[in-house]
Amino acid sequence: MGAVVGEEWTQRCLTRADRRAVGFIVIALLSFGVLWLVSLWIGSKWVFVLIPLCIEFAVPGLRHFFSRRVVRRLAASFPWHQVAVTFVPGRARVGRQAYLETAGSDRTFLRLPEMPERVREQVRRTGRLWLAGPDDRGRTAVLTRGTPFVTLGRVVIR
Asked: What DSSP string describes the chain?
């Protein structure tokens, strides 16, 4: 695992996140296409009330592409440092979000907007994340070792 996360691992995680984001957007476009075909087939425009579902499919991908530049800037500006984390009881899963508490913190949580189940399991097993930041707005780049995953998190005080 090593003591330092290298540029190669960071780039691998970003590439994996890019592919995942494109997948979400493709699913959203395909679901919109299916809605359009169903509307033609049944002759009703009422199926378009399901458009918010298509948008919901696209949200993770759009969130990644809107935050990608900030993640790259944080990774370039701050050194990666390893922290011990635990899921906050009762807040481990709020929608897609995850709340994590860093070891030794006093009611300071790390909020991650998106955390796939494979990454949740790895964090539960290892109890470790790598952070670059936070900046003055509380944003931090979050990375895992072993399972390629990178996202933009926010430090929140509760």
From this structure: --SS--HHHHHHHHHHHHHHHHHHHHHHHHHHHHHHHHHHHHT-SGGGGGHHHHHHHHHHHHHHHHHHHHHHHHHHHS--EEEEEEEPTT-S-BTTBEEEEETT-SSEEEEES---HHHHHHHHHH-EEEEE---TTSEEEEEETTTTEEEEEEEEE-
pLDDT of 105? 75
Contact residues for 64 (Cβ-Cβ < 8 A; gap 6+): 17, 18, 20, 21, 114, 151
- What residue type is 125 in one-letter code? R
What is the mean predicted confidence (pLDDT) over 56-60?
89
- pLDDT tens, position by position, 27-48: 999 999 998 998 889 888 888 8
